[in-house]
């Protein structure tokens, strides 16, 4: 069911993106900014452990098609760094793993201009949109600090060593799921002057798919939520 849904979403987004360029009135935009990602998983069975959110960088390329009055549909392609950290606390303080992840994301959104319509008049505008996204996990790099259990000190502590590596998705020892999907919301504030728009954007992605293939219950499910604040520019072809 999930695979069927993702295939339909991908095909629909590609067809929409293709059809957009056949229209007389479209808007092509690009924006860049910071991402902030949190990882969600039940760690109640793992003592002195937590996940920390971390910042990253992102770039969005978007194509928007007005469909009726102030309503529009949009799609595009995003490169997103979605980073987080696993940390041991308490007596295990100093033990951590930082995850640096690169994703490509494809959104499919429906929205409307709630203040002004830049296709009709210049000036300040505000728009909101919501829909679905699908993404693909490109790379994962890990760097961390871990105890050397063979080097127990007289005070009962361990020496630590630092390790870094790049995850091999071909081997995929942790059985990670590279293709994911979820819900996406967007708010933009902009200013239109003739064919040029400048804007600030807020995007929120709520992950629905499990990041691993092994979990068999919702209690074990591992998902991501990602926030992005950015600034950009767009050009209207009309």
Structure characterization notes:
This protein is mainly beta. It has one domain: Porin. It has one helix and ten strands, in the order H-E-E-E-E-E-E-E-E-E-E. It has one helix at residues 2-20, and strands at residues 26-40, 49-68, 71-81, 84-88, 96-115, 123-152, 158-166, 179-193, 196-207, 223-237. Strands 1, 2, 3, 4, 5, 6, 7, 8, 9 and 10 form a ten-stranded antiparallel beta sheet that branches. The radius of gyration is 21 Å and the shape is elongated. 26% of the residues are buried.
Descriptive terms for the model:
Porin, mainly beta, single chain, ten-stranded antiparallel beta sheet, 238 residues, 8% helix, elongated, 1 helix
Tell me the total number of β-strands.
10
State the helical fraction.
under 10%
Supply the CATH architecture: Beta Barrel
Outline the low-pLDDT stretches: 1-6
| Count of the domains | 1
CATH topology category name? Porin
**Total number of helical segments?**
1
Gyration radius over CA: 21 Å
The overall average pLDDT, rounded, is 86
Give the C-level CATH assignment.
Mainly Beta
Terminal residue distance:
40 Å
Tell me, briefly, the overall form: elongated
Q: H/E element string?
A: HEEEEEEEEEE
Task: Give a quick account of the main beta sheet: strands, pairing sense, barrel closure.
Answer: 10 strands, antiparallel
Which strand-content bin applies to the residues?
over 45%
Instruction: Output the structural class.
Output: mainly beta
Pfam family, one: OMP_b-brl_2
Protein name: Outer membrane protein beta-barrel domain-containing protein
Organism: Chishuiella changwenlii
Domain Outer membrane protein beta-barrel: 21-212
């Amino acid at each position: 069911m999930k695979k069927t849904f993702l295939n339909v979403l991908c095909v629909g987004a590609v067809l929409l993106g293709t059809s957009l360029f056949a229209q007389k009135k479209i808007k092509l935009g690009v924006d860049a900014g910071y991402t902030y990602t949190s990882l969600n998983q039940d760690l109640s069975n793992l003592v002195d452990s937590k996940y920390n959110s971390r910042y990253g960088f992102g770039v969005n390329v978007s194509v928007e098609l007005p469909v009726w009055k102030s309503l529009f549909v949009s799609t595009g392609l995003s490169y997103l760094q979605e980073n987080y950290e696993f940390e041991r606390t308490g007596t295990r303080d100093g033990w951590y793993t930082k995850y640096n992840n690169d994703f490509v994301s494809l959104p499919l959104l429906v929205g409307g201009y709630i203040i002004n319509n830049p296709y009709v008049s210049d000036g300040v505008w505000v728009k909101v949109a919501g829909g679905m996204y699908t993404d693909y996990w490109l790379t994962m790099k890990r760097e961390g600090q871990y105890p050397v259990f063979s080097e127990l000190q007289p005070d009962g502590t361990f020496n630590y060593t630092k390790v870094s590596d790049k995850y091999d998705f071909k081997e995929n020892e942790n059985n990670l799921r590279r293709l994911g999907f979820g819900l996406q919301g967007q708010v933009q504030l902009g200013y239109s002057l003739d064919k040029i728009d400048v804007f600030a954007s807020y995007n929120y992605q709520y992950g629905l798919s499990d990041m691993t293939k092994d979990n068999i219950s919702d209690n074990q499910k591992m998902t991501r939520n990602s926030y992005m604040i950015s600034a950009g520019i767009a050009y209207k072809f009309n």
